Amino acid sequence: MTANQPTIEERLSRLETLFVNVGEKVAQHDGNIDVLVANIQQLTENVVAVSQRVDELSEQTTRNINRLAEEAAQDRQQAAIERQEFRNSINQILNYLRDRNGGSPPPQQ
User: Is the separation of the CB atoms in 101 and 94 below 8 Å?
Assistant: First the structure.
């Protein structure tokens, strides 16, 4: 061996140091991976919860829309009935006034 070449012990010591460093890096990455997996699991649970809530809100909204559509239809029907009753009342008044005037239309002003 020449004076500048490391001994086998020195080379083995350097390799051992490298393996220790690599092992520490792997351990750090394992910890990071565990944290990432936990984060992904939590996010997945959050997405499922949000999805369920969106489904609930969608169903509730559909029920509300259907209820409001029914109410609007009933309101339109009631308005039509009231308009017809009003027309009938107006016709009764006009008939009464015409009959009071001997069959002629009420006087114009």
Answer: no
The distance from CA 2 to its chain's CA centroid, rounded to whole angstroms, is: 76
Q: Which of helix, strand or coil describes residue 98?
A: helix
Buried b (16+ CB within 10 A) or exposed e, 28-48: eeeeeeeeeeeeeeeeeeeee
CA pair distance 75, 80, nearest whole angstrom: 9
Q: Residue 72 is encoded by which pair of tokens?
A: 């609007």
Side-chain half-sphere exposure of 41, counting CA atoms within 13 A:
6
pLDDT tens digits for range 7-30: 999 999 999 999 899 988 888 888
pTM of the model: 0.54
Distance, CA of 14 to CA of 9 (rounded, Å): 9
Assess contact for 106 and 98: CB atoms under 8 A: yes
Q: Find all residues with CB under 8 Å of 104, minimum gap 6, and list them.
A: 98
